[in-house]
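Worked problem 6 (solution included).
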Amino acid sequence: MKDSLIRECIEDTRLKIKMSDEKYVDKDVIEIIESIVLAKTKETGLGYRDKKEIIDIVFNSTRKDLDILQPYAEDYEVTEIMVNGPDNIFIEKNGKIQRVNEKFSDCAQLEEVIRRVAAKVHREINDLNPIVDARLDDGARVNAVYKNIALNGPILTIRKFPKKSITMKDLIMFETISPLAAEVLQKLVQARYNIFISGGTSSGKTTFLNVLSNFIPPEERIITIEDSAELKIENIDNIVALETKNANVQGKGEVTIRQLIKTSLRMRPDRIIVGEVRGAEALDMLQAMNTGHDGSLSTGHANSPQGMLSRLETMVLMAADIPLDAIRKQIASAIDIIVHLGRLNDKTRRVLEISEVESFKDGEIILNPLFKFQRLEEKGIVINSLLPTGNKLKNTDKLQMAGIQWKDILNE
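Solution. The predicted structure is:
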């Protein structure tokens, strides 16, 4: 009964007229909706809570871009919203994925939400342009796939980011990283080591990149380059934030990460931060790191530090036909440190390994693991910890230039 009442209220002629009139603010609209809902539910025997729920749903459906998803978008504990067709909605809340009871009435209602979101960022989604990547006003990242390429209906994925930036203290409290490893990374960032963060989907790479970025000295000039702007670097005044742009419906106007990296080199950056490399732009990023832009940071998808190196080789080959040894030499000279993150079975995100890219020898890149995640058991209690391997940092030139001693960091 409730579903049919909701549809009746949304389709009410008076409501449609009022919704098209921009002079009405939200308060006016709620009053209009309340009068319609109360009139239609007068003889139904529904209680106050049910009526309030109908009012909220109708308001979100007619006034809010995300319709029935709006409450989850406004819930700060929800970090991901996943819509697999009109009948299957999932959220990630406090690190756990759960299915919710709400459903879209049909594909058309879900498509309307997707079109609204796309229109707000001047994008278009239809049978000819079936994929949209966008960013909402609050910084949330949106991906939508149209029904002609998604067999179970339109797909909508929204990744939210906290209003308050996560700090290294927060990551230590969450046990994502150990205090000692955090101090080591802080010193390496300050000493201008080039750091690459690897990990699987939803392992926390962007969050970790943001945390490391806030260790950069405030007097430096930073250029950030992203597909969808997510970084929130708060301690730097001299910052330029660049974002890619998709082509319009005529296929014109596209601006790629490769183009942004190239133009950033003419902006006198002290450091360049590339949100994620996933293609030919890897070559431009490595060249930037190798031409005086020490202290640069980036991320990429991989299952291990060694896997990240292999992926970088493949991505560079997308840009140019270069001998493999030449690519590996360039990677080894460009990247100093790889931080690898992962998501465990208990859904917690952890730093699993911190390795130094030591050298290129006999056709292979040599990694020097500095910290590794270990699961220990003491007296029946399982302890997860990121522990030093005992290996010393081999390339200490940048630390010495910054007046920092490796042994002092580790209190040796």
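Discussion: Residues 88 and 103 are 7 Å apart (CA to CA).
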